[in-house]
Amino acid sequence: MIEINGYSRTCGLIGNPVEHTMSPVIHNNLAVATNENLVYVPFHVETGRLEDAVKGAFGLNLLGVNVTVPYKSDVIPFLTDIDPLAKRIGAVNTLVRMENGFKGYNTDMPGLLRAMKKDGVEVKDEHIILLGAGGVARAVAMLLADNGASKIYILNRTTDKAQAIADEINSYKCSDIVEVKKLSDYSLLPQDRKYLAIQATSVGMYPKVDEAVIEDVAFYNMLHTGYDLIFNPLETKFMKLAKQSGAKGFHGYRMLLYQGVIAYELWTGKDVTDELAEQVYEKMLAAMNA
């Protein structure tokens, strides 16, 4: 039970929309469990009012702020500092209060890595298929390259954006770790191994739950694991097709959990154990199914 008093600190979420967010479930349960006098609330920020929202949050002494769509990149000019990872990704989802303003972090990618490890999915030395070439896919590709992936194949309907990501990462890593192919050309990938595939598009997200970015069973026969960053529904068609072909299938709900956990740790300085994180995860599942 959260008891709000004059010593309570406030954290929150700014975005548009924010009405269906799970972040209050994460942070308010963490606050209770760690005995932190903190309350977390969502703030719907209308188009054109982002700068006002950031300045207002600082003026109101908010301890920290999460940022969601469509403001993860737009918020950067209004920060006093930015973490190197967030700067390289070009997106911020967590603001931490400093003396003269907020410092921006990206906890989405560290959250994904922590979620994958919890699910028993390793990145190091893996040959990975990355589906999509948007902002999320770019950040994931950087994460994979930084954490020891042997090879990353970016598959997208068109290749221009995918090639730009590949060129950027290959230049940064001074290697040819990333290759690009059209989505329809997955059969041209080396067939002497099984792959980890990460689904980083919005295809299959609620309400269009009967869609998958690739429908052909032959693709899923190439996988040992399919990891879908979508978390609604909890079992996407991509996951179903992966499982039907004998691969493991995971969704992005633990990524949502752990990006919040890492933000909470940044705000409070407290470490969240895996045991506590799993307790909060169960509460998230219950709230989603309510």
Q: Which secondary structure elements does this structure contain, and how are they paired or packed?
A:
Elements: E1 9-15, H1 23-33, E2 38-44, H2 50-59, E3 64-67, E4 81-82, H3 84-89, E5 94-97, E6 102-105, H4 108-118, E7 127-131, H5 135-146, E8 151-156, H6 160-173, E9 178-182, E10 195-199, H7 217-220, E11 223-228, H8 237-244, E12 248-250, H9 253-268, H10 274-289
Parallel strand pairs: 1-2, 1-3, 4-6, 7-8, 7-10, 8-9, 10-11, 11-12
Antiparallel strand pairs: 3-5, 5-6
Helix pairs in contact: 1-9, 1-10, 4-9, 5-6, 9-10
Could you give a quick summary of the protein structure above?
The protein is built from ten helices and twelve strands.
Sketch the major β-sheet. 6 strands, mixed
What is the ordering of alpha helices and beta strands? EHEHEEHEEHEHEHEEHEHEHH
Q: Give the C-alpha Rg.
A: 19 Å
**pLDDT < 50 stretches:** none
Mean pLDDT: 96
Order of strands in the sheet with most strands: 2-1-3-5-6-4
Helix/strand-derived category reads alpha/beta
How much of the sequence is in beta strands? 15-25%
The tally of strands reads 12
With helices defined by DSSP (H or I, 4 residues minimum), what is the helix count? 10
Helix content range of the residues, please?
A: 25-40%
Distance from first to last alpha carbon: 19 Å
Tell me, what's the shape? globular
Verbal overview:
The protein is an alpha/beta fold and 290 residues long. The protein has 10 helices and 12 strands. The strands form 2 sheets. It has a 6-stranded mixed sheet with strand order 2-1-3-5-6-4, sandwiched between helices. The chain has a 6-stranded parallel sheet with strand order 9-8-7-10-11-12, with helices on both faces. Helix 1 crosses helix 9, helix 1 crosses helix 10 and helix 9 packs across helix 10. The longest helix is centred in the last third of the chain and has 16 residues. The two termini are 19 Å apart. The mean pLDDT is 96.
